[in-house]
Write a structure and sequence with these properties.
Rossmann fold, 11 helices, 27% helix
Length: 362
């Protein structure tokens, strides 16, 4: 890791629409610059948020480690929490200066996908991307961010900045479990107990499923039990497919979520499915291994497989309420906090094996 600070910041104060702010820019794998840029001003239907916490996700980790290609310079950070400091023209009175918010997916509300309740496919879903000179990205590694008002989610009640920043990954798990149409007491398996696997454990428990977690790391299995998993399988010492069959009187599980991008995990997931079971490809794979499907088996047993990416506005709203109203405890997933000037150190820590969420606090 190399890190330099370009243009040291003045201490003249940060006033919305005036002055400058710090931005953490990834200039390439393992390289971070702290740059100073003008504080952006919100336009029509936009909101300026003072960021208070941004969690480091796998996208930033893979970009930083070089595991996943990206376009540099890159301003990462899409798991954000902050407070509204300025609203642009046209913004609803539902969003007000001083509100605690999380930042997420936007939507136009007028396209085919929005009007049919599938706004994840809206062309404006990722319209919150920012540009600072030659740098681009979701923009969470900064002191301020302008974002479309449709992607601003007020937090009811009270919660820590760190917990609020995890609304985005929680919303992704809520999205996957919603599409699965979980029934109370259904059997659901999560393969992989990293942060996103554990988010799925939380979401599945909220839907009333019996949750089974398969993982090779003993510490992560302990964490899964702490977060509500009903049964854990040490896949390093026993066959998870056989164990799931045993736990379900031979039926298999109605729902399986692969929270790691692994060809072996995908094979196990397909073999675990019950009649009419559904398998979710929750994680992307780097490198990618093709998924082999026996169409006759799928036809005969009425099974299915689908992928999920990101979340929809309904999922974000649920995540914001669960966190703000204290209906979920995400503190076991928060490992350590860093200042923005320590972004390189935080990224180094985040790519170490076995870690949970590292938080950057601008």
């Amino acid at each position: 890791m190399t890190q330099v600070e370009a243009n040291p910041r003045s201490e003249s104060g940060l006033v919305p629409g005036e002055g400058t702010m710090r931005v953490g820019v990834m200039t390439g794998p393992g390289a971070i610059e702290i740059r100073e840029v003008p504080i952006p001003q919100p336009g029509v239907n936009e909101v300026l948020v003072r960021l208070r916490a941004t969690a480091i996700c796998t996208w930033e980790q893979r970009s930083y480690s070089g595991q996943q290609e990206n376009k540099f310079p890159f301003v990462g950070g899409h798991e954000m929490a902050g407070e509204v400091v300025e609203v642009g023209p046209g913004v609803s009175s539902q969003i007000a200066v001083g509100q605690t918010v999380t930042i997420g997916s936007a939507a136009c509300g007028q396209c085919h996908w929005c009007r049919t309740g599938r706004d994840r496919a809206c062309p404006q879903h990722y319209s919150g991307s920012v540009s600072y000179g030659d740098a681009w990205g979701p923009g969470g590694f900064a002191e301020y961010k302008v974002h479309p008002a449709s992607g601003i989610y007020p937090i009811p009640g009270a919660a820590s900045w760190e917990a609020i920043s995890l609304a985005e990954p929680l919303s992704c798990a809520i999205h996957a479990t919603r599409l699965l149409e979980i029934g109370v007491a259904d059997d659901a398996v999560v393969i992989g107990a990293g942060v996103m696997g554990l988010m799925n454990v939380i979401a599945l428990k909220k839907r009333g499923a019996r949750v089974i977690v398969s993982e090779i790391d003993a510490d992560r299995l302990t964490k899964a039990r702490q977060l509500g998993a009903d049964v854990t399988i040490d896949a390093a010492s026993e066959d998870p497919v056989a164990r799931v069959r045993e736990l379900t009187e031979g039926r298999g599980a109605e729902h399986v979520i692969a929270a790691i991008g692994s060809g072996r995990a995908n094979e196990q997931a397909m073999a675990m499915l019950s009649e009419r079971g559904r398998f979710v490809l929750f994680a992307s794979a780097h490198p990618m291994t093709p998924l082999e499907i026996d169409p006759n088996h799928m036809h005969n047993h009425e099974t299915g497989v689908f992928g999920t990416l990101s979340s929809e506005q309904a999922d974000f709203e649920v995540a914001a309420r669960l966190i703000g109203l204290g209906q979920v405890d995400l503190s076991p997933l928060i490992q350590q906090s860093f200042s923005l000037t320590e972004l390189g150190v935080a990224l180094d820590a985040s790519i170490a094996p076995g870690t949970y969420r590292m938080i950057v606090k601008p």
